[in-house]
Design a protein that fits this description.
This protein is mostly helical and 203 residues long. It has helices at residues 36-40, 62-75, 80-92, 96-109, 113-125, 129-142, 147-159, 165-177, 182-194, 198-201.
Length: 203
């Protein structure tokens, strides 16, 4: 499907976009996002961490990274952004349930579009579709023009066999907000297909 995730992580797991704002990082199994501008703005103005350890997860130093981040959490347990980073490390270690717990804690600590979107994408990947649905709606309450949340809500509807006028509106909104996104157009085509509008699906 056209579910948006976040492959292509930067060194710390949080790739930088123009302006210094941080993007979402992707869950394994999702395709590369190309909703460039919209995804890249998430979390930037709303929740900037005061400090983040400089970690390179690409070199396999996961135990070291985990130890350093857990030490930082002991010092500053209220930093949601560090909880997200620990979640990334747990995902890289193959421990999705621990990552999910860290993402949930991050969303409790910081009610931001970024925390809820990260949580929703992982819930989505784990098949927790009703929880993902709620998380994506939480994103939109905080950031009404979030193309990723609209796209993934529409994708969820298709996956659950619930494609309807609302799913179509979500998919169309994602395309409006991210017209260059392959995923958004792919999701819109899937919604049309599910609605029996086959000519529009291939147009």
């Amino acid at each position: 499907g056209g579910v948006v995730g976040d492959q292509g992580m930067g060194h710390s797991g949080f790739p930088e976009f123009p302006g210094g704002e941080q993007a979402l990082v992707a869950r394994p199994g999702f395709r590369d996002p190309d909703m460039n501008g919209n995804a890249g703005r998430l979390g930037g103005a709303q929740h900037r961490p005061e400090r983040r350890p400089a970690l390179d997860l690409g070199e396999g130093r996961l135990d070291e990274a985990r130890s350093r981040v857990e030490a930082l959490i002991r010092q500053q347990p209220g930093l949601a952004d560090v909880r997200l980073l620990l979640g990334e490390i747990m995902l890289a270690r193959g421990d999705a349930q621990s990552a999910l717990a860290e993402y949930k804690r991050a969303a409790e600590l910081a009610n931001t579009a970024e925390t809820h979107l990260r949580l929703g994408m992982l819930q989505h990947q784990l098949g927790q579709r009703d929880d993902a649905h709620r998380s994506y709606h939480a994103v939109l309450r905080l950031q009404a023009n979030n193309a990723v949340a609209y796209n993934n809500l529409a994708a969820l509807a298709v996956e659950q066999g619930r494609a309807d006028a609302q799913a179509l509106a979500w998919a169309q909104k994602a395309v409006e907000l991210a017209p260059e996104s392959y995923q958004a157009h792919d999701t819109l085509a899937q919604v049309y297909q599910a609605l029996g509008q086959h000519e529009r699906a291939i147009s």
